[in-house]
Amino acid sequence: MNDSTLIDLRTSAERAVRPVRAAVARKRRMREELLAHLTAIFEEEAEKLSDEQAALDRAKERFGDAQELSAQIQGTVPWTEWFTYFTERFILFREGESVLAHAARSAAFISGLFAINLLLVPLALMIRGRPQEIGRMEFAFFAACIVLSGLFFGMTLLGHGIREAMFRGASARSLPLAVVYSLTSALLVPVGGFIIIWISTGDVASGYAHFRFLSWFAFLVPVVLIAAVRQIATEARDDNEWESLQID
Amino acid sequence: MCVIEGDKLRGHLETMVLSVLEKGEAHGLEILRRLQEAGRGALCLKEGSLYPALYRLEEAGKIAAVWEDQPHGRRGARRHIYRLSSKGKRALTQVRTEWASFVQVIGGIVGAPT
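Output (structure tokens, whole complex):
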């Protein structure tokens, strides 16, 4: 099988999968599975026909119309996955956009989630007969919203930095930068915890106690961040390859 | 010769898939081969259409799937290996009973040979 045949088979699989509104993980699985099937029937036909182009045409004919298949596949995606689908569309990095724009979208997503809570908390407190707590709770939620949005903004920027410093081409890699980004990420969670508690209680000592407690777990943050960035970088390479195929 | 195709086939595809998986686990192409063999050439199915049926069955917990260890062929991707779950086995038993009474009743009405 030559490269152009493989691209043709990948394009056939992508025509069926790309229009489907489903979570990224589900679409990755479908692409790989449909490509495996197309490859297998192409190899069968190539053995019978001894003509690569004829085998390719026959494989596509056996596989069926991509548009029809796409609609059938859409029917198998549970409605519960729609939240994941829209969330991923909103927060995942889009090729060509700036790192700052991506970080701002991550922060906006967290703000949005907290905004829903800001509306629900007074309602819940009214129902439970504790309206006097509304002001204090709303302030605490608002502070948490601001700090967590900032945390997500910072983590997204650091994630991009770690990606550049560790997982891009060899010429862009830099160990010192990777260490700086990792140490900064380790600081973000205890500092964020301190600010939330300090603002919501007005008590510096209590904020400092939380800072010390969260510092015990701070080393986990860069470990998780690097693992996540590595996974995302690998998957994004594959996804970009699929998405660069011309399906029209 | 195609006797059963299109919607007529799709309506029963999931049950037939459960039935062929009773013989043992298989990937998509092997499931199709088993179906075509059992249908003695009378079934005509666009091969891609098998996968929505597999995804629905998996979502319903009637079959389970795992990735094969090695990619298929020299340039191929990995395939999913499907197997019947205990829920699928129960569903198959129930469908067989319903099918037998369906054939008996409708066959009796239309006067089909039994």
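The longest strand of chain B covers residues 63-67.
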